[in-house]
Write a structure and sequence with these properties.
The complex is a heterodimer. Chain A is α/β, with parallel strands linked by helices. Helices cover 31% and strands 20% of the residues of chain A. Chain A contains 10 helices and 12 strands. In chain A, strands 1, 4, 5, 6, 7, 8, 9, 10, 11 and 12 form a 10-stranded mixed beta sheet that branches. The two termini of chain A are 16 Å apart. By secondary structure, chain B is mainly β. In chain B, the strands form 11 sheets. A 5-stranded mixed beta sheet of chain B has the order 1-34-35-36-37, with no helix packed on it. Chain B has a 4-stranded antiparallel beta sheet with strand order 2-40-39-38, with no helix packed on it. In chain B, strands 3-4-5-6 form a 4-stranded antiparallel beta sheet. Chain B is built from 7 helices and 40 strands. The chains are: A alpha/beta, B mainly beta. Chains A and B meet through helix 4, helix 6, strand 9 and helix 7 of A and loops of B.
């Protein structure tokens, strides 16, 4: 699908090499994002992905334009790869050009260099009888009567559930859907409500969500214990930005911006209480075609 | 796509003229309608789901003269599954989301009425996993029943298109959608639910056809009170005999409360035996996708069910794939025919599963009679142990035994199954079943990346490739075809003949008394083959790829064959949604289907069309 626009752009830049940057400036910074996915993105544009998108658009001198779509199965298909006019089957104009976060080794989109890496944490509500837990592993060794009171939120996908299973804690799990179909409520918001209502006491959750819970919860209300990756159960993942497969020019532009604005990106993410770990280079060989 | 689609009614003068005062309401009418081959009044042509027509005007000798008689654009892109219903003089067709229904006058081929339900695209489309398909309408009690994508089940007056009632069958906020074709049985209309990817717990529900009031609801998993299983009366096949399932047979096969998000959704087809008063269907794959995270058999996902039509009480249940590791969803249709197996006549139920095995069971008792591969390239299990009823899994192809982050290679069939939702047909003339098949294998890597809450991506990386082995012998042959059209004897479990197709056959077939079997291809051909030999007798290229079901009926003494074309669905999603960047990198979008079907875009493009065929005058 990409051959034509890329070629088109190459031709223009060859002919008008001198004005290439101005031409690029006229383009909009088109992002597809979930309208209600704190702390990543919201329609109010107060998520950390919104802030980073703003930063990049500013650096490029471009106007930012959002297409909102809930981030679930089919997100890339319905946004980055979807033509603006659905009836124009062979259209080369898409709903957006950038998705602000995809797994660094995703192949649904062309991933940039990773711009942050976080980890899963065990987040425990304080004052519910588990303040003595300093390491996740301790949960498995608790006496049965204390284990019964654990009430750990458990998702239908993800390493937290695998870890709970390894330590015989599945019976203490309160199952949650990892994707909600609700446009007025997302998983992070649901966890926030249920922690406050004491329906659950703890959750093993991806760092950004943990950061959100901390920001919404009572002051010093939660303990965050980073989970330790093992060969069977990885907890740390690097996140990148996604462009359409084949859109290598844009990938390079974003890579440059990621490298140049490393510190500022980090400051933005940290201001959302998100635990960051050092970005590991992916061991996976990159496509070189 | 931003605004909800408005419902509206075309109150044309044609409709006014045709609106007869009242039509017979007693629903025994439906059975009579289905026995008249002039009609095609339910998805399977009849309650048994045989998709066989007694019409014999089009024969194996004259089918070569077949011609398109008329066609009709649905005005909707995306995948068109299901097929036209024909009730007396009127033809009813449906579209993918936004689920427009057209009633067409056969005489003039003009629209009598059309109806588009009010559905919020922003709420519904994001929760539909695999294209926005719909598998068709049901007719009964003078009403057309439409199962909308957003789970709302709507009854429309068949004469006027006016909405009679609607009922919310599920909640899209919980990831529930629906793509199934309903079935009318006596005074009830049956429907299921989709959304296994979201952890929806599947169920079959029965609603009163007059009022839309819920009559019963039977879940696929959970306590006996939810599944409508009776520990003593409900039976299953174990230790070489039919035996009671025992108390909470579902709960005991799940760890903790995981059954609450257990999957087992019901987006396929339902059939019915009026004499036994039992309805039959299959349940889907268990949720979560990572098998390691749900220890146990995960009953009753991937199971065949027989329920009492009046109460929903489970007569028997049989699990085909305990503890799924490959996404071998069990929702494919069930066909009810009486056959002699091993010297004894049985009322049988025949089911060709995604897992590559064709099952023949006694439909009164649930006794397992035959379980054989209908595509011998299938390698994930050597055979089904007839004593335990369990497939014997080959360790090499067990995604769980190989572990997370290990790419299990060359598993056959691929996740889309040796056969998917496309219904088979059965001819009593030949005693054979005609299977529209897929012929692919896959590399399956569960949880290469496992982001959960807030970063929802499918927890398994799939990539699909041709099976490259012979359907009948299973021997590697380097073939590159992705589809097969196979004739199978369900009495013995033998493959009789099989035709290669370049792409998956994602279209339901129809067998006729004229000795001809019709099916469609992904490139868009309507094909007719000889029921006995499989010899290709006719083909015609329709405007788009066919994933719909071919149906046949007659009007004014003339036999017609009709099919919806309109590429999409799982196999065609690369085209339907423009996923294919032409680079290897996009292989795993569409749950792995994009890479394998890359070249399909050279053959066909989007667009919904009904094409109706007949012999020349």
């Amino acid at each position: 699908m990409q051959a034509k626009p890329t070629l088109h752009r190459l031709l223009i830049s060859a002919v008008l090499a001198a004005t290439a940057t101005t031409l690029q400036a006229k383009e909009k910074f088109k992002v597809c994002a979930d309208p209600l996915n704190p702390p990543y993105s919201t329609q109010k544009q107060d998520g950390f992905e919104n802030k980073i998108a703003e930063l990049f658009a500013k650096k490029l001198g471009q106007e930012i334009e959002y297409t909102w779509f809930p981030q679930r199965i089919g997100f890339i298909r319905n946004t980055l790869n979807a033509p603006v006019d659905e009836k124009a089957v062979d259209s080369k104009e898409f709903k957006c050009d950038v998705v602000m976060s995809v797994p660094a080794d995703s192949d649904m989109a062309l991933a940039t260099e990773p711009y942050y890496q976080s980890t899963y944490v065990l987040l425990i509500a304080k004052g519910r009888g588990f303040d003595d837990i300093k390491e996740a592993r301790q949960l498995a060794d608790l006496p049965v009567e204390r284990q019964d009171a654990l009430k750990i939120a458990m998702f239908d996908r993800g390493p937290g559930t695998a870890w709970m299973q390894k330590f015989g804690l599945l019976d203490m799990g309160i199952p949650y859907q990892s994707m909600s179909g609700d446009e007025d409520n997302n998983i992070a918001m649901q966890l926030d409500q249920d922690l406050k209502a004491k329906k659950i006491n703890m959750v093993i959750v991806w760092g950004p969500i943990a950061g959100y819970l901390v920001s919404q919860g009572p002051k010093n209300g939660y303990t965050m214990i980073p989970m330790q990756s093992t060969p069977g159960i990885p907890f740390e993942f690097a996140m990148a930005m996604g462009v359409r497969n084949g859109d290598k020019e844009r990938q390079q532009t974003l890579n440059k911006l990621i490298a140049e604005n490393k510190d500022q990106i980090r400051r933005i993410i940290e201001s959302y209480h998100i635990p960051l770990t050092e970005i590991k280079k992916s061991a996976k060989p990159k496509d070189d075609d | 796509m931003k605004k909800p689609f408005k419902s509206w009614l075309l109150a044309s003068s044609v409709a006014a003229i045709l609106a007869a005062p009242a039509i017979a309401t007693a629903n025994s009418d439906l059975e009579k309608l289905s026995q008249n081959p002039a009609n095609w009044s339910m998805w399977g042509g009849n309650y048994a789901g045989t998709r066989y027509s007694e019409l014999d005007q089009i024969t194996s000798s004259n089918v070569k003269n077949l011609q398109p008689a008329w066609s009709f654009s649905t005005g909707v892109l995306r995948g068109h599954e299901g097929g036209p219903l024909v009730v007396n003089d009127t033809l009813y067709i449906h579209t993918p989301f936004p689920n427009t229904v057209y009633a067409i006058d056969q005489k003039t081929q003009s629209i009598i009425w059309e109806y588009t339900p009010t559905q919020d695209a922003d709420v519904t489309v994001p929760v539909m996993c695999c294209d926005t398909v719909n598998r068709g309408l049901a007719y009964g009690d003078g009403k057309i029943f439409l199962q909308q994508s957003d789970t709302v089940l709507t009854a429309l007056d068949a004469k006027t298109g006016k909405r009679v009632w609607s009922v919310q069958n599920g909640d899209p906020k919980l990831g529930m959608t629906n793509t199934a074709s309903p079935l009318v049985v006596k005074d009830k209309v049956l429907t299921g639910i989709s959304g296994g990817e979201f952890g929806v717990r599947g169920f079959l529900a029965a609603y009163d056809i007059k009022t839309g009031q819920l009559a019963w609801k039977g879940y696929s998993m959970g306590p006996d009170a939810d599944t409508l299983i009776d520990a003593k009366k409900t039976t299953t096949w174990k230790d070489g005999k039919v035996a009671p399932v025992g108390e909470n047979s579902s709960l005991s096969t799940w760890e903790g409360d995981q059954w609450k998000i257990g999957g087992g959704t019901t987006w396929g087809w339902t059939s019915y035996d009026p004499k036994l008063n039992l309805i039959y269907y299959g349940s889907g794959n268990p949720s979560t996708w990572n098998p390691k995270q749900r220890p146990g058999d995960n009953k009753w996902s991937m199971s065949l069910w027989a329920r009492d039509a009046d109460t929903g009480a489970v007569k028997w249940v049989y699990q085909m794939t305990p503890h799924d590791e490959w996404d071998f969803d069990g929702i494919n249709e069930t066909v009810l025919v009486d056959q002699e197996v091993k010297g004894k006549m049985h009322k049988t139920i025949v089911h060709f599963d995604r897992n590559g095995f064709g099952y023949t069971l006694d439909r009164e008792t649930g006794e397992l009679l035959v379980a054989e591969k209908f595509d011998k390239s299938v390698n994930w299990a050597t055979h089904v142990d007839m004593n335990t009823g369990r497939p014997q899994v080959v360790s090499k192809y067990s995604t769980e035994q190989n572990g997370e982050d290990v790419n299990t290679q060359g598993v056959c069939p691929a996740a889309l199954g040796s056969k998917n939702q496309q219904p088979v047909s059965y001819s009593p003339q030949t005693g054979l079943f005609y299977i529209s098949g897929n012929h692919l294998c896959m590399d399956y890597e569960p949880f290469e990346v496992s982001y959960t809450a807030g970063q929802p991506y499918v927890g398994a990386t799939l990539s699909m490739m041709p099976a490259a082995a012979d359907v009948i012998t299973g021997q590697p042959d380097g073939s590159t075809n992705l589809g097969q059209f196979t004739a199978f004897d369900a009495k013995t479990g033998k493959i009789i003949w099989s035709n290669k197709e370049q792409f998956s056959v994602w279209s339901g077939s129809v067998a006729t008394a004229g000795g001809v079997v019709f099916y469609g291809t992904l490139e868009g051909y309507l094909k007719a083959v000889d029921a006995k030999t499989g010899q290709e007798l006719y083909k015609f290229k329709t405007p788009s790829g066919i994933i719909g079901n071919v149906n046949t009926w007659s009007y004014n003494g003339k036999q017609y064959v009709g099919v919806l074309s309109g590429i999409g669905g799982w196999a065609g999603i690369g085209i339907a949604a423009g996923l294919d960047s032409g680079e290897a990198g996009s292989n795993s979008e569409g749950l792995g289907a994009v890479g394998a079907y890359r070249s399909l875009s050279s053959f066909t493009k989007l667009g919904g069309t009904l094409t109706v065929f007949a012999l020349p005058n």
